[in-house]
Amino acid sequence: MSLGGFAKIKSHAAPLSPNTFLRDLLKIWRPPVAHGGTPAPMRFGKRHHKEDETETLLMRLSEGYRGEGLRGIAAEAGIPDCPGMYGVSDSGGRDLPDSVQKDVGPWFSSDEYSKPGFEYGGVKIYRPLMDYTKPTLMTTLRAAGVPWVNDPTNSDLKLSKRNVIRHLMQHNLLPQALYNSKEPDASTLSIVSRNIRQQFLRRNDQADRLFQACKVIVFDSKSGYLDVRIPLAPTAESQDETDAGWTVEKEFIAARLVRQLLYIVTPRAHISLQSLELASKAMFFNVEDPYAALSPNIRKESITVFTAGEVLCRRSRVPEDRPVSNRNSTEGIRLDPDHIWRLSRQPYDARLPEPKRDVPDAQSSLATAHGDPNSMAVRSQSSWQLWDGRYWIRVFDPSPSNIRICPWNMERHNGLKRRIEERRQYRLKKSLSRALPFHAPGRTRYTMPAIIGADGDVLALPTLGIDTQSEPQLLRYWIRYKKVILPGSVTDDAVVALRSG
Fold first, then answer.
1. Could you tell me what percentage of the chain is helix, strand and coil, using 3-state DSSP and rounding each to the nearest 5?
2. Is residue 410 within a helix (H) or strand (E), and if so which, with residue range?
3. Greatest mean pLDDT range, 33-42, 289-298, 364-373, 388-397
């Protein structure tokens, strides 16, 4: 795209934020097709520099951000506000041909679990110019004879708070104390942001070290529950644990570890650390007890069940039939030898609308595909839908009836049992009696997706690979679990993956 063309698009995009602009652009434009009709992976570069980081810091200060909210702009991130956009939001890598996947290493994180049945990939934003000032970049471009575009909306003080802050900085209207004479290329604010970012990265590294040491007993993606043994405590040998500051460090590290575990199961795209204060202290006995001040009779050791981030967390004794070897990780981190935590999707609140997805009419797709349900026109990226923030599902139904994806609940369960008896579907009854207790124990089964017909009958339980119809149907589906990061010590034997997809 030419610079002039980009300038026209940018002017029409105002006053949209860059992230909103990218999101809307990706709704109407897809990347060039690579092989077999599959779009090639994408990454966007943004021209943020040091001055942009200072502007961001001042904006966040004015909006009441504190602590790590002042760490500045991330050098690498996904595109926000794009949930459910297949190929953009943490997805799309599974559909890349092998010939393409060999060349896309930089686009995909090596810690993403990329075994069959799981999604990975997604569009990334990179900011490679964060270490350079605007004058340095302009001088470099002039020397190379490269033109650039000045966005005229950046000077409109009524358009955004950032423009006002940019105006104050360009005209030296900010207090001189915000500028650092020892580092002429960095303001005091940017140095503060850099220090906060370094602290953030250190805490992240410590939390990741503990996360990698966690022992996954089983992760069953068919219902999305995780049994895991966690470290006894968030500790670090380099810290003085008698120091009051280390207590704060432990709380941050514990909250990060808990959040990493919750992300495996939660339907949410983001969980704030502030919301995990009590959860992290309940999981780790040696973090300051938040319940002691409430009542001496309430101790967190007795708290065995709680919810956080729409995840039900339950602590229990290690079953006798479960192996308890490898109590100490190779990094010397001691795991809890007596307890495991089961994390599963929180049961749906009956007072709230249940998550559901209507399946688009397949007739137009069928015509385009010339009647072939396996063609790429039908199995296109646009047909994937994210259900409940956990499962990517694609359904092909050539019938004119409307179908939808809803939770498998007790009412639908009882209705299916009655239908099985009426139609004498004893093979289906046997399949359900085997699969449900093993893959979806207890109320966990009522958080699985079900494909529902226009008459309300259950057509399939896609995560279990069970078709409930008595006669052969043209209904087909593909399903994958969302992108996840699992502890590095996890074995394939501990992961129950989806077979469809």
1. 35, 15, 45
2. helix 410-423
3. 388-397
